[in-house]
Amino acid sequence: MASAKSSRSRASGPLGLVTTTGLYQTANGAAAQESGVQLVDKLKIFKTNNFDPDAYVQSKCQTMNEKEIRHLCSYLQDLKKASAEEMRRSVYANYAAFIRTSKEISDLEGELLSIRNLLSTQAALIHGLAEGVHIDSLSAGSEGSAEHDVSNIEDREATDIEKWSAEFPDMLDVLLAERRVDEALDALDEAERIAAEAKQNQTLTAVQLLSLRTAIQDHCQKLADQLAEAACQSSTRGVELRAAASALKRLGDGPRAHSLLLNAHNQRLQYNLQTIHPTSSSYGGAYTAALSQQVFSAIAQAVSDSLEVFGDEPAYASELVRWSTKQAEAFAHLVKRHALASSAAAGGLRAAAECVQIAIGHCSLLEARGLSLSSVLLKLFRPSVEQALDANLKRIEESTAALAAADDWVLMYPPASTRTSGRTSATTMGIQPKLSSSAHRFNSMVQDFFEDVGPLLTMQLGGSTMDGLLKVFNSYINLLINALPGSMEDEANLEGSGNKIVRIAETEAQQLALLANASLLAEELLPRAAMKLSSIYQAGGVDDSRRRTSDRHNRIPEQREWKRKLQRSVDRLRDSFCRQHALDLIFTEDGDTHLSAEMYISMDGNVEEPEWAPSQIFQELYAKLNRMASIAADMFVGRERFATLLMMRLTETVILWLSEDQSFWEDIEEGPRPLGPLGLQQFYLDMQFVILFGQGRFLSRHVHQVIIDIIDRAMAAFSATGMNPDSVLPSDDWFVDIAQETISRISGKARMANGDRELNSPTASVSAQSMSSVRSHGST
């Protein structure tokens, strides 16, 4: 019996998880981020010993309307799900120790049973020996008495129990030979009962009792071996398999019975898998579907058989989960090797996503039986899916770069093939974006990318997906920066630009098209495409309610931050654009400057009165802004704010360069020749010209204040010579008249009676106030 019991205590399978209700569930690795402390606080009221459900409901619902009651019910349902998930996570946190302890307890129970049987056998043997010694001592007392007793024994007829005990081994041999298992089990139970009664009532001698117990033990072992052999046969399945396992459990060898049950299902599964052969021409989704159908059907049947025979006993439940996890891991490795590997390497995100969906779909059917293995599959599939994700993003980057090399940077509506595509895109939503060819390709590939990546939200890839797309967008922005003629950006600082060839945008219209591409993608198309992830997520793409509830609170800030990062990339392009055009205005081709202190200081050395007009650099600045604004009006329809900020940024770049040019101000303030009256007048005219043409269109309040500070600094330098600026500067109307005449000449618009400004406009009043305040401040 000891040897038999030792064979019943066996280690088995990988780790799993058992809930306290007896259903078997693995912990979901993608649990929500909700605080455990907050959940405990929410559940505290329900844990008190005197909690009264009726009173609680009355207190909450007494003053509530129907809508509030529905909200309360929804809240309680969410709290119930959160509590169940918290319990499952808590069990999973101590799972390794739990499984190890369960196995040790199972082994210990088997050893204790073996020890008990051994002690019982030894006790019966000692008792029999003692009785034998007692008989020998009695026979030595009197030979005549012994002869008389022997005569009585020989003459005495055997009792019924003695006859049954003698016939018992032969009867069991017949039952075992005929495989009448139920009758054999009943006979063994009857023998155990008779042996116990015989020992209590002393109806059998010790030798007879020992012989009976030995026969019971031997035939128990024979029956167990017979049942184990039957369970291992490939032809044994269904009812026969459950019956064999149940009989073994009835014999007291439950662990062995459960292991044999699972092993039988594994053998049948391996046999069925031999018919599924992946080929180079086979469809990965078809192979995954066929494989998952076999694997998860086998697991489901094993769960059903285990529950029917062994119930929800923790030791058996743990072994079942370990076995199921092992099967799921083996399945995942097969899918990775024969389906996901090739898709991931080629960047086939859609094919990889479909394989994962199929596998998770079949696996989720087990949850109705209390077994959750999705986290096991997702953990193993994740590296392959991430590889496919990276390869897909790389393909978007390379394809866009290839088109950028030949892009003529002319905005157009999407090609007809894109508009008629069945894929969901901006065009199918009633939007017809005007982009250049490379931007159209980038947008269409990103739209398809979001369609493909949506089903993978269960793998918690949202963050890496958005980061990867941001990296690809930055790479495209780098291409656009490189398309600017004479860009001063150090290409070593442009991550991902490498040695990619890009067609140069020669004209101002082409250069503005670069900004139109970037702004439309960053402000509208990409954020709208990213919203697909949220809609899929909230529509049930992820089953975990707590994770979905938490995501609703976190997703909006995350999307805003992601959109800000997109905008910062566009700002890099805008700054490069403005810096390049500012440098073209300020410097000549041979490196000389159009804006220096000498151009103002040298005016007082001329004999003739100058022809008063704003300096050429500022006239060219206004002409450039006027041309660009006209072009941008057609390119940035609906996004006029971006065009306005772009023009303001260009003006700001020029003015800040003047404000921060140390050599300019050193010559003005500390040079060998001071700034004279004519030079101050010209400088004042230039600054007022910028204020007048920039108000409301090309000048921000910040730059307006910078110009005022610049004027104040120049007047302070002039005052340092001992002269009053007011004594040499004409009236404000003189400056306004000359500036307005120049504006009219450059813009081609006739001058209004009061100039181009509206009399009631806030910018007009600000300009007038600033001129008077600067002159009064400079004179003091």
Describe the structure concisely for a colleague.
The protein contains 29 helices and no strands. The protein has helices spanning 2-8, 36-43, 53-61, 66-93, 95-141, 143-155, 160-177, 181-201, 206-231, 239-250, 254-273, 284-310, 314-346, 349-364, 374-404, 416-419, 437-453, 462-482, 508-541, 545-586, 598-601, 616-635, 640-660, 662-670, 677-694, 701-719, 725-728, 732-747, 762-779.
Could you describe the 3D structure shown?
It is a single chain. With 780 residues, this protein is an all-alpha fold. Helices cover 72% and strands 0% of the residues. It has 29 helices and no strands. The chain has helices at residues 2-8, 36-43, 53-61, 66-93, 95-141, 143-155, 160-177, 181-201, 206-231, 239-250, 254-273, 284-310, 314-346, 349-364, 374-404, 416-419, 437-453, 462-482, 508-541, 545-586, 598-601, 616-635, 640-660, 662-670, 677-694, 701-719, 725-728, 732-747, 762-779. Helix 18 (462-482) packs antiparallel against helix 19 (508-541). The chain is elongated and about 155 Å long. The relative contact order is 0.06.
